[in-house]
């Protein structure tokens, strides 16, 4: 019996050692994620700490963090069992930034100059309430049932949708929010922000200031095989550069988001693993590299910050949007865009209308076709920083559907053949939330012939 207890004790010690050895390196990422999430949710959207912990931070391991908010100092701190304390600060105009101990919080910084849309027009081309419109071909009973089915029933925590908005022919035909959220709630789009970043290149191209088909303007690449990589390759995620994106472990993506001061360099320093345009590999590092390339197009930091808002975001009235920056002042174009559901919908409408915003051509019509054209190796699932349905990802939706997608099921669906934009924000991935079912229900309510999928 003594030998048995000795064996059990030894096994327990080994197990504890193994858990500690494998988990300890992750503590920095856990506390980093938690601090950043708490600071962003609280200071950008005025959510309580409890709401954030039960919502955004309700993720395995992330829920181990202990969090503290300092409203006066505008920062949040998180740690795991008192270990690996991380701090995220909030700065008006720049959002929340996860910082390291050597970050100078007193250093002056620029903020984007914002202009609020004020034209006395109803949504979507103004900020007044949308006009009530009834379409004879819309079965509103079916539509409302499909939208309601996207939300949990009382007492359930499965689908975890926060909002669903359906716009048909520029008119809101359905809109619903979960408890605690409304049309003014700013919600993190995660990787939907990638589509915003790509759009900035479409705008520069229309202005005649950038050629995406030329080699990327990166000095460090000019003396090796990477010099042939074009911005077009980067926009299609097929640069051939090494990159690991696996959020279940410590990888290139997690190190970038929770360790790096300058996220634009995380992908830049990676060697080539394949020739350009031969191997599709989804990479958040690539998008932040593109953000860095955008920075290089402007003489000053102020011009770079303003460009995103004056030439796109505020230009189409996405006045709620905030794109957060890293410690070096780069927009984290891969992941950190916040906006209301209605403002995310405006971005979808911009693409539905091929860059034309109520008479203002933001980017060339050809750009909408460009981002929706499949990239080599993606099997029809990916285009130019947008996800596609060309390969039948959603079998009950038209093949011309393309979308902005983000972590935990953030979606802006653009369906040109149906003149339709659908936004869904939530906390569940496709594996747990029936996206195809939602699309099928909404599309089925339109009483249109959707059998021929373009």
Q: Return residue spans where pLDDT drops below 50 for at least 5 consecutive residues.
A: 10-22, 450-454
Q: Strand portion, in percent?
A: 15-25%
Rg over CA atoms, rounded to whole Å, is 23 Å
Shape: globular
Would you tell me the overall average pLDDT? 93
Description:
Helices cover 31% and strands 16% of the residues. With 454 residues, it is an alpha+beta fold. The protein has a six-stranded antiparallel β-sheet with strand order 6-5-15-14-13-12, sandwiched between helices. The chain has a four-stranded antiparallel β-sheet with strand order 1-2-3-4, covered by helices on one side. A hairpin with a 2-residue loop joins β2 (75-80) and β3. The longest helix has 44 residues, at 2-45.
């Amino acid at each position: 019996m003594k030998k048995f207890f000795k064996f059990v004790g030894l096994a327990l010690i080994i197990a504890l050692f193994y858990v500690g050895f494998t988990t300890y390196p992750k503590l920095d990422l856990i506390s980093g994620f938690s601090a950043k999430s708490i600071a962003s949710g609280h200071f950008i959207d005025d959510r309580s700490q409890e709401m954030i912990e039960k919502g955004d931070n309700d993720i395995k391991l992330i829920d181990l963090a202990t969090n503290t908010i300092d409203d006066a100092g505008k920062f949040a701190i998180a740690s795991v069992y008192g270990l690996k304390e991380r701090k995220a600060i909030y700065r008006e105009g720049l959002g929340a930034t996860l910082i390291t101990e050597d970050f100078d919080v007193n250093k002056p910084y620029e903020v984007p100059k914002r202009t609020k849309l004020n034209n006395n027009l109803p949504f979507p081309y103004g900020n007044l309430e949308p006009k009530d419109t009834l379409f004879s071909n819309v079965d509103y009973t079916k539509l409302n049932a499909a939208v309601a089915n996207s939300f949990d029933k009382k007492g359930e925590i499965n689908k975890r949708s926060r909002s669903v908005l359906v716009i048909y022919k520029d008119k809101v035909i359905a809109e619903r929010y979960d408890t605690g959220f409304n049309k003014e709630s700013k919600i993190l789009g995660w990787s939907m922000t990638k589509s915003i970043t790509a759009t900035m290149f479409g705008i520069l191209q229309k202005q005649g200031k950038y050629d995406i088909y030329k080699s990327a303007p990166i000095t460090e690449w000019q003396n090796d095989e990477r010099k042939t990589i074009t911005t077009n390759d980067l926009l299609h995620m097929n640069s051939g550069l090494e990159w690991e994106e696996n959020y279940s472990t410590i990888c290139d993506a997690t190190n970038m988001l929770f360790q790096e001061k300058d996220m634009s360099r995380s992908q830049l320093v990676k060697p080539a693993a394949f020739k350009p345009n031969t191997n599709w590999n989804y990479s958040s590092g690539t998008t932040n590299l593109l953000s860095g390339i955008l920075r290089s197009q402007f003489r000053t930091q102020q011009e770079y910050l303003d460009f995103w808002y004056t030439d796109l975001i505020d230009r189409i009235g996405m006045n709620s949007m905030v794109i957060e920056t890293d410690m070096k002042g780069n927009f984290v174009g891969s992941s950190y865009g916040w906006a209301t559901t209605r403002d995310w919908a405006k971005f979808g409408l911009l693409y539905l209308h091929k860059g034309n915003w109520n008479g203002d051509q933001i980017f060339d019509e050809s750009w909408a076709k460009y981002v929706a054209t499949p990239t080599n190796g993606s099997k029809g699932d990916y285009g130019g920083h947008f996800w596609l349905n060309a390969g039948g990802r959603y079998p009950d939706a038209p093949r011309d559907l393309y979308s902005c997608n983000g972590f935990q099921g953030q979606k802006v669906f653009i369906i040109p053949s149906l003149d339709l934009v659908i936004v869904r924000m939530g906390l569940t991935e496709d594996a747990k939330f029936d996206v195809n079912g939602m699309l099928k229900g909404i599309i089925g309510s339109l009483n249109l012939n959707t059998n021929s999928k373009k």
